[in-house]
Design goal:
- It is a single chain.
- It contains 15 helices and 18 strands.
- The protein is of the alpha+beta class.
- The strands form 4 sheets. A 6-stranded antiparallel beta sheet has the order 3-2-1-6-5-4, sandwiched between helices.
- β7 (207-212) and β8 (217-220) form a beta hairpin.
Length: 485
């Protein structure tokens, strides 16, 4: 069979080579300019906006979470009641801020009372806010926000540590009658936000940065080499007004002799613009031009290759896989693939910190069935038991034929007690089944050993303990379940 498969492969390789050669020869005459224009339209009208939408969706998950946290704090009944109660026992609020910071993973959490002007932090009362202090200007700016804007996002030095720059979400707090009583919020480390931007850039291979409504670059990755504002960036200076006056837009401009495609989108929660750029590199154009030009022919070629491949290699591969992994008589997985299933279940269990158990089952007095009624009746017993077992399994469970009349069941996410209950159900189900063929009545019972995976235990040791429990079940009279703890 090996030589036959190899000959088929040679035929397919030759056929594939001829088809690809014809496709390359036919598509080589496509105009460079037409392909370039098609690529440009695709980037500007489809690819880049889609990338921008994807990044915006991730921002909704990654960066808008602090706004949600601050909103919960501003509307928290405890915060308002504590403030209206003349701020008695400050330790209660400090403990609350510390819990917020620990629960949500922010680098700071705070509350400033309008009544006392105390700046409460998760580490204590840091200071009193003063209108003559430059570093406190943020409070009075937030305080004077219009009713339609209950919060602001700004980048500033952390009051608790002036050496750290933080992205703050400052949220106004009102009492139950709608009167302003303070400002609360949380902060994210600028480095953490920059790391998110770097992640977006690496994932989508685009340049990503943010600007405020005045065009100042607010957040950017470490590789950003532009100016501090759109107005001072060559190429973008002529587009700055159009970008900052539209909630979303798409442009292209020249930078260092290359075409740069830009997509802008206002993030209303931050009042910042998300800018996503893609550079049209000449090295990529040749590949993309060839790709777009060959798309139609490549589709035909691919379909033809897939049809031919499915008629030959696919059929042989499926047969080989079934033969290599499945017991022909019972349809259960064979013993050779158990370690692979065990390794997958073990890795998943470690990741989720869940238990893993095995059930080793042996059909009682199976040799007598073969001796008294023949191997065909023995095969029927094996098929019947396998069918009963498969009917009780979950999707993630694995049934293996372990030996002549032995079956091993792998039970991910199941501890010893639940595995014992499951094993008892199997034992009871098998004992209630009677095989009737040509006037012959055969009753079936099974002995079962159960074991749960212990720390640092191998698959071989786990099965060995289950086998020991099975041996004890047999010596104790069969038709019972024994656990190895």
């Amino acid at each position: 069979m090996g030589n036959h498969v190899w000959n088929d492969k040679k035929k397919f390789i030759w056929l594939l080579s001829i088809l690809l050669l014809v496709a390359f020869l036919v598509t080589s005459g496509i105009s460079y300019k037409v392909a370039h224009d098609s690529l440009s339209q695709q980037i500007e009208g489809n690819t880049l906006p889609l990338t921008s939408d994807n990044i915006y969706s991730e921002i909704q998950q990654d960066l808008l979470r602090p706004i949600f946290i601050s909103s919960l704090m501003a509307q928290d009944t405890f915060v308002r009641d504590w403030t209206l109660n003349r701020e008695q026992d400050p330790d209660k609020l400090i403990r609350y801020l510390k819990e917020i910071q620990g629960k949500y993973g922010t680098i700071t959490s705070f509350f400033v009372s309008e009544h006392s002007r105390n700046y409460y932090h998760s580490t204590g009362i840091l200071k009193k806010i003063q209108d003559v202090e430059v570093n406190d200007a943020w409070y009075f700016r937030v305080r004077s926000l219009p009713p339609t804007e209950p919060f602001e996002v700004n980048i500033d030095a952390d009051t608790a540590d002036r050496s750290k720059t933080t992205v703050f979400v400052n949220y106004k707090v009102f009492d139950f009658d709608g009167n302003f009583i303070g400002v609360t919020g949380v902060g994210l480390a600028v480095e953490k936000v920059k790391a998110l931007i770097e992640l977006y850039q690496e994932r989508y291979n685009r340049r990503v940065f943010f600007t405020d409504r005045q065009g100042n670059i607010t957040l950017r990755g470490d590789e950003y080499q532009g100016a501090d504002s759109l107005q001072n960036t060559p190429g973008l200076d002529q587009l700055a007004t159009r970008i900052l006056t539209s909630p979303s837009a798409a442009f292209s401009y020249q930078r260092n002799g290359k075409t740069v495609y830009l997509n802008s989108r206002l993030v209303p929660e931050f009042k910042w613009y998300l800018i996503v750029e893609q550079e049209d590199a000449p090295q990529e154009q040749a590949l993309l031009n060839t790709f777009w030009g060959n798309l139609a022919l490549s589709l035909v070629v691919t379909i033809g290759i897939l049809l031919i491949s499915n008629m030959t290699l696919g059929r042989y591969q499926r047969k080989l896989e079934i033969m290599a992994t499945t017991d022909k008589l019972t349809g259960a997985a064979n013993r050779q693939v158990f370690e692979e299933f065990f390794g997958q279940a073990l890795a998943k269990g470690k990741l989720a910190n869940t238990p893993l158990a095995v059930v080793l089952l042996d059909i009682d007095h199976f040799k007598k069935v073969n001796d008294n009624y023949g191997h065909s009746m023995g095969d029927l017993v094996l098929k019947t038991v396998s069918h009963l077992l498969r009917g009780q399994l979950r999707a993630e469970d694995v049934l293996c034929r372990w030996g002549g009349e032995e079956f091993l069941i792998l039970l991910p996410e199941m501890d010893l007690s639940h595995a014992a209950e499951f094993a008892e159900q199997l034992r009871s189900l098998i004992s209630q089944r009677e095989i009737k063929v040509n006037g012959i009545h055969i009753s079936i019972t099974a002995s079962i050993g159960v074991a749960e995976l212990q720390r640092q235990e191998s698959a071989e040791d786990l099965v060995r303990r289950a086998d020991l429990a099975l041996y004890q079940a047999k010596t104790a009279g069969r038709n019972q379940v024994v656990l190895n703890q």
